[in-house]
Amino acid sequence: MVHLKVKGEFDMIKAVIFDFGQTLVDSADGFRKAEKESQARIYPDFKNISWATFLKTYREVRRDHQKKSIFSRKTIWEEVYNRFDRRPVSGFLEKFESDYWETVNDRSRIFPEAESVLANLAGRYHLALITNTQGQKNAGTHRISQFPKLEQYFEVIVVAGEQGIPPKPDPIPFQLCLEKLGIKPDESVYVGDDWRIDIRGAGDMGMHPVWLKHETVQRNWPSMETNVPVIHRLDQLLDLDRLLKTDENREKNQKK
Q1: With contact defined as beta carbons under 8 Å apart, do 96 and 22 qualify?
Q2: Is the peptide bond before 44 cis (omega within 30 degrees of 0)?
Q3: Confidence check: pLDDT of 255 > 60
Q4: Which position among 66, 151, 164, 211 has the lowest Cβ density within 10 Å, counted as fewest Cβ atoms?
């Protein structure tokens, strides 16, 4: 169970740190389309394998890799080929991965309130981004670069999962970001959508996690018992002190 680190007062919060996908932008439609297209494109290489068997194996491999914070589609697809003792044509998967991320990017939309919220918070806190790479073609870049209106607000951007930085929920990317900002963990709030990667990762570091379950995202959220603040729109962050103190009071009442 992840609990909010209660200090009693939250006027020492100096930074608000964000995840990217499904936190600042909605890419759900892009991922759905890209997944369906990639499955259809590689399936012809699996002759004599039923679609149901192929799809079951594909989903198992994807799930296993995601649990290990491995998001490279090429790596996932290579394992699917290995499971069926097949080999892809050279260069085949690299091209498909490039097309995959192009589809995701083309169908990603900034949450309507995201830009105004960042602009407001930037006047009061340091802003930073910690996001896992997802196997994009060019190392050292991230999809955030496709959204300069958002990117401009971040003093620090940590792309985890490449260049020697392990992916979240490993503590290193969180630690690196805090060091660059020059702040302590309990002086920061971390906003993310993924329970394991974001909320547990930030909470284990001693940061104040805020779980975003955006109202526009169609998703089966995990059911967790937690006193971590849960928000459904980013503009709920604008009254950050009240948001955190509400959960402090909630925890006190639960202990009575």
Answers
A1: no
A2: no
A3: no
A4: 164
Cβ(243)–Cβ(236) below 8 Å: yes
* Residue 145: Cβ within 10 Å count: 12
For the record, the structure tokens of 157 come out as: 């951007």
Phi/psi of residue 129, nearest 5 degrees: -135, 130
- Taking CA atoms, 157 is separated from 74, 152, 171, 197, 233, in Å, by 25, 11, 15, 17, 22
| Spatial CB neighbours of 210, under 8 Å, sequence gap ≥ 6 | 189, 190, 191, 192, 228, 229, 230, 231, 237, 243
Give the phi and the psi of residue 100 in degrees, each rounded to 5: -55, -50
Q: What is the DSSP letter of 43?
A: G
Decide if pLDDT at 92 tops 80: yes
Report whether pLDDT(251) > 70: no
CA 240 to chain CA centroid, nearest Å: 21
Run of H or E including 208? strand 208-212
For domain 15-26+109-255, give the CATH superfamily: HAD superfamily/HAD-like (3.40.50.1000)
The structure's pTM equals 0.86
> Is pLDDT at 117 greater than 90 in this prediction?
yes
